[in-house]
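Objective 1b. Sequence-to-structure analysis of Glycoside hydrolase family 88 protein.
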Amino acid sequence: METMKQFITKKTKNNGIRFGDRLADHTEDGVYMFKENGFWTGGFWTGLNWLCYEMTGEEVFMKSARGGGERLRKRVYEAPGTLDHDAGFLYCLSFVADYKLTGNEEAKRTALAAADLLKSRFNEAGKFIQAWNVWVPGEAFSEENRGRIIIDCMYNLPLLFWATEVTGDESYREVATAHAQTCAGTIIRPDYTTFHTYVFDPVNGEPKYGRTFQGYSDDSCWSRGQTWAMGGFTYAYKYTQNPFFLEMARKCTDVFLAKIGGDDVPFWDFDLPSRLGEPRDTSAAAIAAASMLELAAYVPAADSLRYREKAKSIVDTLFHEYSTRHNPQHEGLLEQACSHKPENSQTNCSLIYGDYYFAEAVARLANCTKAYW
């Protein structure tokens, strides 16, 4: 793990010099591009720096994390309408991390403000958190967003669970638990594969249908979506101790393991008619590894060992076969990540969330992170 830690921290430190307070998103020709307000991905850059701070104790990483976090702080107070259900990704890995590691009370207040915004998206009739905003009023797809959930939100719920822990206000936990229950009965199929999105009637809350946009088809299993379910239900169990959520996490994880087989890095979708020429997704592999390392803490010894061994195998493969360790000019940590293949968008690059989860998995294996979820 030491060699991997050195690779991660050295590259992140060098990137921080160029990035300043900007929030990285994806690479083009090995150079990271930025999103002005952080999009949904900005927290992964701050989170990566907090991981490096834990791994090294060097305050340069704290400075980078807080520098990027300032953009997110302004966003929650000055432009809350730009936020959606991804507040967990943004604020767990910036302000919750800061509070957990340093006791920063201002960071705690900002994270709670973000939790309030996330909780306010709850649809009482349907018992779900609305995922996306109505981007273009009157346009059919945007209007569907009033009743849409997406599988990614399962990994955003820890922000709400954490808010209950630090305030004692059970309403955050109640919303997160209700959303997880709703996901389990809708966006998770009977065979424990996942839709990307699921649409409800926004008025009466009635479930309507599943839709998959970043996967191959509505009936296929988008590999990254499966990993969001793996980690999301694991954290739902961590905070509630509800055995139903643990069972969901295990079932979704075992489906992932069955579909990936002896491989370590999945293709962008598990159900492609042909894999010839199709891209893999290292970000899905990294999320799976980090999620299994958390799940391993809650299952019997034999399963714990199985999950940890597979996570370790994934991390080793990512480092030795997919990392940029021999290319110091490349700003990403992992190559061959795939964001949105159906739109041919960012299909062979580094994605900041893939880099973050790879670093989280390495830090977990090295026993040097408190984790921020």
